[in-house]
Amino acid sequence: MRMSATLPTPSTAAPSRWRAALRVLRTDRVMLLSLALLLLLVAVSVFAPLLAAHDPAALTPRKRLQGMSADYWLGTDSLGRDLFARILYGGRLSITLALLVAASSVAVGLLLGIVAGYFRRLDSIVMRLMDGVMAIPGLLLAIAMVALGGAQISTMVLAIAIPEVPRIARLVRSVVLSVREEPYVEAAFGMGSSVPSVLVRHILPSTINPLVVQATFVCAAAILTEAVLGFLGLGFPPEVPSLGSIIAEGRPYFQRAPWIILFPGSFLALLILAINMFGDALRDRLDPRLARKGRS
């Protein structure tokens, strides 16, 4: 009697993956709490136009430095602007910038890492170039680029993404170096597969897990760098709400109105904490060595 093996169809494989993800969330409380906090902060930032009752740029000098009330949930700043609205719009800007920085740095770093890890003649050239970029302090490079190119979204993304590219390139290169000697890669070449086909079908999937984890840390670093630039006065224009600029503007009034610094600082700290905690939990799940250590 011949036994027939049935392969899972896409319709049955997708629910099983969702069930596995839900099972992980139920067992890993750190991942569940960090993901819930992150989704909450992202949701209130994305839906800022619906949640904020006031225009974040509207000036009402007669209501300056007011405390929390039914009209102004988190009070007002030194110019009478709604602090709640400014924090939500500032978080929206930070999250958007972080996603753009992560996408651009991962794309460039992935390409350079694959080239350096697979093509040995180009390895030393690419890595020496990455060493040169890493020798420049990332914050100083961002300050110089923003000072020269202006506080535009494209300049900010480029200034923050460049220091992150060498780290991603080194990570991808290490993965490619370990995968290129695997038997299934050699078997693919033996079956007549081309180099681009092997890179896309066999080597590229091995880099996805570490890249996903690294992208979370890039997002957190981008949010923090943008806040530092805004605090130093090198961020976006004053009419654009930014968490760093909000904190900088409220610094002279801290003793009289401490909420101007405490509320945006708490939002910034919670956002970075949620991203880092989720990245750590994700790394523990996606790294086979850490996963086996946790089960043992």
From TrEMBL:
It is a multi-pass membrane protein. Residues 95-279 form the ABC transmembrane type-1 domain. The keyword Chaperone does not apply. The keyword Nucleotide-binding does not apply. The chain crosses the membrane at residues 93-119, 139-163, 211-237, 257-279. It comes from the Bacteria. It is found in: Cell membrane. Keywords: Cell membrane, Membrane, Transmembrane, Transmembrane helix, Transport. It holds the Pfam family OppC_N. Belongs to the binding-protein-dependent transport system permease family. This is Peptide ABC transporter permease.
